What we know:
single chain; 281 residues; alpha+beta
Amino acid sequence: MKFLVSVPASTANLGSGFDALGMALGMYDDVEVATADGLSIVVDGAGAGDVPLDESHLVVRAVRAAGYDGGLALRCRNTIPHARGLGSSAAAIVAGVAAGFTLTGRELDTDALQIAAEFEGHADNAAASLFGGVVVAWSEGERYRAVRMDPDARVRPVVLIPSQESSTKTTRGLLPAEVPHTDAAHAAGRAALAVHALTSDPSVLLAATEDRLHQNYREPAWPDTVRVINDLRKLGVPACVSGAGPTVIAFGDLPSEVDTHGFDVRRLDVDTAGVRVRPLD
Length: 281
């Protein structure tokens, strides 16, 4: 049995929707999967030489969590940068879950999201990579849920990827245990507006992506990221941190006067398909 799993990158939070909003991006990791005797893993691209090549590899762990315990031969071709806030770990997990379901003869269902989200403790990136489009994710007790929506065709994301890496665990540790009620109310209103903006009216994205819950607290981890975001927003360009950073995600054209030195600037489509599996000869 041999097949290819293609999984999109994702951006989460989108400014105001902390741990709730996600969107799939047209940047992909591909994993060739084949049944085999034992375990073999080859990694090309992002993470090559750094990630483990044994049972602790994230794709393998996700395959096992999805119920397949047989031999595997994996070839991972990674284009999603690691530790940049573009959902590389969620993509690996989703790829493994999709592979595990395929190997056990099951269609992807709500259990796939549950298995994937349990790895990270929240479902925003995983849901985006699974389903594509724009997602709202939440939890009900120990169950993870998500709804998918089509993005407005005028939503035109640009990512600005620095060479600096960032750990979600580290940046989450910079967040306070409590926030003012006024900031929480602000976040609720802007997150609701962000859903409308991303799916119906991108003209209000500047207001919709305004954050008070996480970005300023995390500024010590990536000051250049916050500088670029502030410069863009002052010129009317909706911009925010992608996930746990340090990548910036913006919408629309970037003014030439904004200094993006040190950032790899890429315009991406919004992926609307999510993870895909196709057989290989």
